[in-house]
Specification:
Blueprint lengths: L3 H9 L11 E4 L3 H6 L2 H11 L2 E3 L13 H4 L1 H22 L4 E4 L2 H11 L3 E3 H9 L2
Parallel strand pairs: 1-2, 1-3, 3-4
Protein backbone atom coordinates (compact mmCIF):
# COMPACT_ATOMS: atom_id res chain seq x y z
CA UNK A 1 0.00 0.00 0.00
CA UNK A 2 1.32 3.44 -0.97
CA UNK A 3 0.45 6.93 0.17
CA UNK A 4 -1.28 9.08 -2.49
CA UNK A 5 1.73 11.38 -2.68
CA UNK A 6 4.15 8.50 -3.21
CA UNK A 7 1.84 6.86 -5.77
CA UNK A 8 1.56 10.14 -7.63
CA UNK A 9 5.31 10.72 -7.67
CA UNK A 10 6.09 7.18 -8.80
CA UNK A 11 3.22 6.37 -11.17
CA UNK A 12 1.38 9.50 -12.28
CA UNK A 13 4.07 12.18 -12.43
CA UNK A 14 5.99 10.57 -15.32
CA UNK A 15 2.74 10.54 -17.33
CA UNK A 16 1.78 14.16 -16.73
CA UNK A 17 2.78 17.32 -18.56
CA UNK A 18 3.36 20.51 -16.62
CA UNK A 19 1.72 23.41 -18.46
CA UNK A 20 2.09 26.12 -15.82
CA UNK A 21 5.14 26.49 -13.61
CA UNK A 22 4.20 27.59 -10.12
CA UNK A 23 7.04 29.95 -9.27
CA UNK A 24 8.71 29.65 -5.88
CA UNK A 25 7.03 27.17 -3.52
CA UNK A 26 7.43 26.66 0.23
CA UNK A 27 7.15 22.98 1.20
CA UNK A 28 6.06 21.81 4.65
CA UNK A 29 6.76 18.10 5.20
CA UNK A 30 4.49 16.49 7.77
CA UNK A 31 4.84 13.99 10.57
CA UNK A 32 2.87 11.52 8.44
CA UNK A 33 5.01 11.99 5.31
CA UNK A 34 8.04 11.34 7.48
CA UNK A 35 6.46 8.23 9.06
CA UNK A 36 5.36 6.90 5.66
CA UNK A 37 8.67 7.68 3.97
CA UNK A 38 6.79 10.01 1.60
CA UNK A 39 8.65 13.27 2.24
CA UNK A 40 10.96 12.73 -0.74
CA UNK A 41 7.91 12.19 -2.97
CA UNK A 42 6.33 15.39 -1.63
CA UNK A 43 9.46 17.33 -2.55
CA UNK A 44 9.76 15.65 -5.98
CA UNK A 45 6.22 16.71 -6.88
CA UNK A 46 6.80 20.27 -5.66
CA UNK A 47 10.06 20.52 -7.61
CA UNK A 48 8.38 19.17 -10.74
CA UNK A 49 5.75 21.91 -10.82
CA UNK A 50 7.73 24.82 -9.36
CA UNK A 51 10.63 26.90 -10.53
CA UNK A 52 12.00 26.50 -7.01
CA UNK A 53 10.74 24.34 -4.13
CA UNK A 54 12.14 25.24 -0.73
CA UNK A 55 11.86 23.20 2.47
CA UNK A 56 12.59 25.48 5.44
CA UNK A 57 15.45 24.09 7.53
CA UNK A 58 13.42 24.69 10.69
CA UNK A 59 10.38 22.73 9.54
CA UNK A 60 8.83 20.53 12.15
CA UNK A 61 5.58 19.30 13.55
CA UNK A 62 2.90 22.00 13.29
CA UNK A 63 1.15 20.64 16.41
CA UNK A 64 -2.26 20.98 14.80
CA UNK A 65 -2.84 17.32 15.75
CA UNK A 66 -6.28 16.75 14.28
CA UNK A 67 -8.50 19.21 16.13
CA UNK A 68 -5.96 20.39 18.74
CA UNK A 69 -4.94 23.37 16.62
CA UNK A 70 -8.55 24.49 16.39
CA UNK A 71 -9.12 24.18 20.12
CA UNK A 72 -5.67 25.35 21.24
CA UNK A 73 -4.16 27.62 18.56
CA UNK A 74 -1.37 28.56 20.96
CA UNK A 75 0.06 25.04 20.50
CA UNK A 76 0.40 25.53 16.77
CA UNK A 77 1.75 29.06 17.21
CA UNK A 78 4.47 27.84 19.57
CA UNK A 79 5.35 24.77 17.52
CA UNK A 80 5.59 26.63 14.21
CA UNK A 81 7.48 29.72 15.42
CA UNK A 82 10.92 28.48 14.25
CA UNK A 83 9.56 27.46 10.83
CA UNK A 84 7.70 30.76 10.44
CA UNK A 85 10.92 32.64 11.18
CA UNK A 86 12.73 30.47 8.64
CA UNK A 87 10.05 31.11 5.98
CA UNK A 88 10.34 34.87 6.58
CA UNK A 89 14.14 34.64 6.28
CA UNK A 90 13.85 32.66 3.04
CA UNK A 91 11.44 35.26 1.63
CA UNK A 92 13.83 38.07 2.55
CA UNK A 93 16.73 36.24 0.88
CA UNK A 94 15.04 34.83 -2.22
CA UNK A 95 11.70 36.54 -2.77
CA UNK A 96 8.10 35.90 -1.94
CA UNK A 97 6.68 32.41 -2.24
CA UNK A 98 4.05 32.09 -4.96
CA UNK A 99 2.60 29.01 -3.29
CA UNK A 100 2.96 26.88 -0.19
CA UNK A 101 2.26 23.15 0.00
CA UNK A 102 2.01 20.26 2.38
CA UNK A 103 0.39 16.83 2.30
CA UNK A 104 -2.12 16.91 5.15
CA UNK A 105 -5.14 19.18 5.39
CA UNK A 106 -4.86 19.94 9.09
CA UNK A 107 -1.16 20.76 8.67
CA UNK A 108 -2.14 23.05 5.80
CA UNK A 109 -4.65 24.79 8.09
CA UNK A 110 -2.06 25.16 10.85
CA UNK A 111 0.66 26.45 8.54
CA UNK A 112 -1.73 28.86 6.84
CA UNK A 113 -2.65 30.26 10.23
CA UNK A 114 0.98 30.43 11.35
CA UNK A 115 2.49 32.03 8.24
CA UNK A 116 -0.45 33.89 6.72
CA UNK A 117 0.28 32.14 3.41
CA UNK A 118 -2.38 29.81 1.98
CA UNK A 119 -1.02 26.26 2.15
CA UNK A 120 -2.63 23.72 -0.20
CA UNK A 121 -2.13 20.02 -0.71
CA UNK A 122 0.75 19.33 -3.08
CA UNK A 123 -1.63 17.35 -5.31
CA UNK A 124 -3.80 20.47 -5.70
CA UNK A 125 -0.75 22.36 -6.89
CA UNK A 126 0.08 19.51 -9.29
CA UNK A 127 -3.46 19.57 -10.67
CA UNK A 128 -3.23 23.33 -11.28
CA UNK A 129 0.15 22.99 -12.98
CA UNK A 130 -0.93 20.16 -15.28
CA UNK A 131 -4.32 21.57 -16.26
CA UNK A 132 -4.24 22.30 -20.02
Amino acid sequence: MRDAVTFTAEVLLPRLTVHRRQGRVAVHPTCSTEALGATAALIVIARTVADEAVVPEAWGCCAFAGDRGMLHPELTAAATAPEVADVRRLEAEGGVFGAAVSANRTCELGMTRATGMPYVHVLELLERATRP
